[in-house]
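Work Package 3 (structural annotation) set out to generate three-dimensional models for the target panel prioritized at the project kickoff. During this period the team completed the workflow that converts sequence records into discrete structure tokens, so that structures can be stored uniformly alongside our sequence database. As a representative example, we reproduce one entry of 292 residues exactly as it appears in the project archive.
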Amino acid sequence: DAVIHYDDACYHEDEEYHDHPYCRDCFDMDEIIHDYYYKPEPIFYGDGPRYLGVELELDDGGENEFCASKLLDIANADCTNLYIKRDGSLDEGMELVTHPMSLDYHCNEMPWEDICHEAVVMGYRSHKTSTCGLHVHVNRNFFGDDRDEQEIGISRVLFFVERFWQELLKFSRRTEAQINRWAARYGMKDKPKEIMDHAKKQNNGRYACVNLCNYSTIEFRMFRGTLKYNTLIATLQLVSRICNMAVNMTDDDFTSLSWPEFVSDITEPELICYLKERRLYVNEPINEEEDD
């Protein structure tokens, strides 16, 4: 008989129970691979105020509880970093979902390299599929204390994505057709606020380049899935840098920013390496290693 926000409700995939919302305490917590609608109480790892939550889709290896348990053993050896869900958009796979983590925690505490390696060994693929994405959630309250302040920062995120659409499309490793289906753009406008106003009128739902439908987070949906460690970390570093700029720069700064200016300030070695691989850096490109 408690009142909870709809974002905190859990639903079973079984038709018999699908229309019945559950609080987290009453939802089945014992499964290894949970229903798509499973949402545990978030655990925040690392120092804020910016937290990144990752959804990494795997396919081609089966919805296999033995494989899922091996990945969980690696990810959760010391604490509950990760849980696994079913996803109807996948053919023979599952979705790895992290609790909210700081960028530093993702890079230095979360055993992403071992997780990615083990998934490949077990036959899973992410980049080498037509189904998998890498989605990154960022907490809304990083952008401000109230909704109006948050929208100012988020509008600059949208402006950055639209202004550098071609560069980010190349970064994402997706095709135009995949982007249009899973992460459609809102359309370029002259100012950040104009893009935000336009986005509110669009009917993209969650299938937008930056999904604004969640109450507590915004979700970057552009990126193709990957089991290459450097690509994964570089993606998180890019998202983190865009969001940090959105709260520390003005609208005028954003409208005058060029791509060479943006990349010239980057210091993270993983992100620099990936940008060179994708021919998006100011220096000479390097040979690209294959993604899985």
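The CA atoms of residues 91 and 159 lie 34 Å apart.
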